[in-house]
Structures are given as C-alpha cells and as structure tokens.
Amino acid sequence: MGSHAPRGRSGSKATPQATRLLAEFVVNLRYEDLPPEVIAAAKTALIDWVAVAAVGSRTTRQGRSSSALARAEGAKPEATLFSDGSSTSATWAAFANGASSHAIELDDIHLPSIVHGGVAMVGAAVAVAQKLKLDGKRLIAALVAGFDVQYRIGEAIAASHYERFHSTGTVGTFGAAAACAKLMNLNLEQTCWAFGNAGSQAAGLWQYLKVGDDTKVLHSGKACMNGVIAATLASHGFTGSIDIIEGERGFVATLSPSVDWDRITDRLGTHFKVTENGYKIHACCRHGHVAIDETLRLATEHALAADNISKITVKLPSASVLVLDVPVPASPYNAKFSAQFMVANAIVHGRVGLEAFTEARLSDPAIRKLMQKVRVVEEKEFNQGFPDKWTAEVTIETADGRRLTGSADMPRGEWVNPVPAATIEAKARDLLGLVMPCDAARSLVARIANLDAVLDASTMLPEISAPAAMRVAAA
Question: What is the pTM of this model?
C-alpha cells in the first residue's frame, strides 16, 4: 500500500476491506434477526438519549444556541427540534439535538472506543426516521447499526487516536452515516459512498479543554449532521471514497499511528456493540466517574466530613490526567472536567448531579477549600489497561490520622459494572421531569420502551412538542 499504509499493532493483521465489510454489515442487518437483548439495549440507549437531549436543549446555553441556529435557517419542517418542539429539516434537527444532547454531560459512552455513541449518532437517526415516517423497528435496526460501526472503528484506534482527537466527533460521524444509510435503505455501493464522505467530514480537536469551550458539543452536533449529509448525498448518487477507513490516505492512516484491525471485524454481525453501551450516573466527564464512585463509597462507609480531611490523592491514567487535572475550573462547564471539583463536591454534597455544576457550587467556600487539598497524579501503570479499563485510585487522609484508599477499574453504569435498565428509565423520567410534566415524562419513556409498536416515527415524540411542556420548560 506504500509508505502511508495503515500500521497494525503487533499480532494484528490488516483488514484491507474494512469499509466494505462494515457497509455489508449495515446493508444486511435486519430487525428480525436481532436477539431480544439487543433490541432492549437499543431502546435503553434511545430512552437515555431523548432525556439528555431534551434537558440539554432547554436548560443550557449551548443547547439554546445550537437550536437558535437551526431555527434561523427556516428549513423545511421534517423533524422535531427538541428545544421548543418546533420542526426543521432533518439535517438541522440532527445538528441541534445532537449538540444539545452532549451539553449536560449525562450522555452515554462506550469506554473501549472512548466514543459517546448516542450523542454522535442518535440525533441523526431520529431526525431521518421522523422525516421518512419510518416505524420503530426500522429505527431500532438503524440504531444497532450505528452503534456497531462507530464503536468498532473507535476500538481499533482508541489508544492512539484519542491522544489528539475527540473521537465522538471523528469516529461518531461514521456511526451517524451508518444509521442514516440503514434508514434510507441504501445499497452496498451507496453505503460505502456514505462512509467515504462521512470520513472526510470527521473532525474533533481537543483545544476546547483549555478553558472548557463550547466546541465540545459542536463535535456531537456535527457528527450527526455529517451523517445525514453523507447518507443523503449517497442516496442521490454522490460518490465517496469506498476505502475511506483503510485507504493509504484515509481515516486510519491519517488520524491514528496505530490500529488493531481485528477490533473492527471481531464477531461482526453476531455480537452487537449496543449491548456494551455505558450510562452516566454523574453529570460530568466519564474520565472522573471511577474517582467519584470511590470517593462516595469511602465517604459513606467512613462517615467522612470535609473539615476532617487533610489530603486527597486521585491517581489516574495519563489520558484522564490530560482531561481532568483542572485545579481551578474557570466556569461551571469547565468544572465538569475537573477531578478536583468532582471529588470535593462528592464529599461536601454526597452526589455529583446536574445541580453540582452551577456558579453557586463553583464559588462555595467549602468546596473551594477542599479542592485545594485534592491532588491529581498520573499513574502510568494504569495506562496498560486503558481504554479497556479506566482505573482510578482515591486515597483520603484525615486529620485524625486515617488513610483510606479505594480503587476500581470501571465506573458504575458500564456493561461490565451495570445498573439495571429500570435505573436508566428512572434517570430519564427524572431528567424529563425538569422540562415537562411528570405524567408526560412517564408516557414518553413508556412509548420508547415499546418502540417496536411505533408505526410512524414522526408521531413518536408528542410530549417534546406539547405546549404544556414548553410552558414548564420556560417557567
């Protein structure tokens, strides 16, 4: 393949037709062939996404700004804009809802690929399904396809790609294209074209972490939008690179110095990655969740009080330190990426929910004082398992001489450390209750849980556009 050919890790054979193999998987996937647990996992993913998107669109500046752009376009009404229940084009709905769903940091994530799969893809799938008035079974199949494609590509390159690129924006674009291609019933050649043009749009730079810029949510919105554009173009005969993933100047060769091709093909078509989806319990960056889990456990088991703590040491893998070592966060949003703030808030308030990330909490003297006692330390031994393991260790030293340590490899909510689907549904009802009446929230969650019976996706989300919901959101 020449000097720019993809390089595999030791023991990994190259898969020169990765693009075509994934496209074949998407084209051949059928709802009727999906095991019950896969269908259930897809419904859970959609329930979680709808809730975080609805709240993000109506309660955050980033969500409101993204939606304002979509409304200003005055596009043909095809899909629901979550911020106010109005309609816009599928392309702009995918953008605004996708961006909004990443704004409150309670979205899903797949740790082995380090991709927030829902926010990068579900907004596109829902918008296209609404536009085409497709049934719930078609949407389920598209969601399964989208999660699979992005997580497989992400896993293949996660270790090196994530050092420089926000993979939700880059890899997620492929997932959105896959879901849209499935919904549009593209053939094999068209699906390859869709991947080709999705790959050339994929982007996501880390510079936003410096001060917590809004750019992070742009990545998820654009991933969704890119997928709609790529698949729609392909449906009109617009060609794209049919070897975009493995080509000598393609996605992997350009954006990752190493690749494990076997991660893309392992059990492709028989093991479905949506079953590996992870869900957030804490409203902040996933890199900090093990540390929060362990801090809360230690604080509860040992009845710790903030004024009796002399020092807290948080050991993390190198990648997590790069994201989370923010001793003095500049804003509530920036605090979502500060291990110091997360841990201090967990001690002082006993949870790290949406209510934690406010100006009042950020300026709380008790939290500020405790943050100064938190030290984030790079533990290179933890790098050996990353990203398949997200090990963190928390050591709390008290004024009365106790030294308490806790560690874990995976946060609560991951498929290897799961919470019940009922917990995710309860989370969704609680979140939706912030922007609509509680009975409407219950009705919406119940309808998505019975997605197989939905005959027309354009009628799937009446509570999102109900006038009563708008009044509650504005109150």
Answer: 0.89
